[in-house]
Amino acid sequence: MAIIFRICTEDDLHALVKISKETFVAAFEKDNDPDDFKAYIQKAFDPQKLASELSDEDTYFYFLEEEGVLLGYFKLNIGRAQTDVHDMDSMEIERIYVLESHQGKRIGTLMLQEIINLAKRLDKSYIWLGVWEHNPKAIRFYQRNHFQKFGEHPYYIGNDKQTDWLLRLDLH
């Protein structure tokens, strides 16, 4: 059984909307106000918004598949597409999600290794991301993989202002 990484195209829009909503809801719905959460989902994963992001030359979506079965996805930003740090030497991991049915199988580690390889091929000096301060499982995952906290920034779920920790991994 071979696991493959495949860059998403416009033809993947429907599947991207579906997995984006499904994984985000599974991860965060229980911890957020229902109205704020619904507003966020409608805005962040709107098909037109995702189609625009898919066509952005500085944004990359990848699917992780095994024998045609979608396991997870990630979204990377470089250059001007980055949401906070706008360093041309960096790459942002904006999203990295594994479907609940495939969690606990080290798929996140495979995804992270692929992201590191992509960043190195693009000659980036470091990778960074924002992770919700109340997501200890994700924070532990990134710390185990040598990411270091370097700051914080606000992140809104609807009208609810939350705090993301900014973490980075130096590649050189």
Automatic annotation (TrEMBL):
Gene3D superfamilies reported in the protein's UniProt record: 3.40.630.30
Q: Name one GO molecular function term.
A: acyltransferase activity, transferring groups other than amino-acyl groups
Kindly name one Pfam family recorded for this protein. Acetyltransf_1
Indicate the segments forming the N-acetyltransferase domain, all copies: 3-172
Q: Which PROSITE patterns match?
A: GNAT (PS51186)
Q: Which UniProt keywords apply?
A: Acyltransferase, Transferase
Q: Which domain of life is it from?
A: Bacteria
Residue ranges spanning the membrane: these are none
| Matching InterPro entries | Acyl_CoA_acyltransferase, GNAT_dom, YpeA/RimI_acetyltransf
Q: What is this protein called?
A: GNAT family N-acetyltransferase
Q: Which organism is it from?
A: Flagellimonas hadalis
Q: What is the lineage of its organism?
A: Bacteria, Pseudomonadati, Bacteroidota, Flavobacteriia, Flavobacteriales
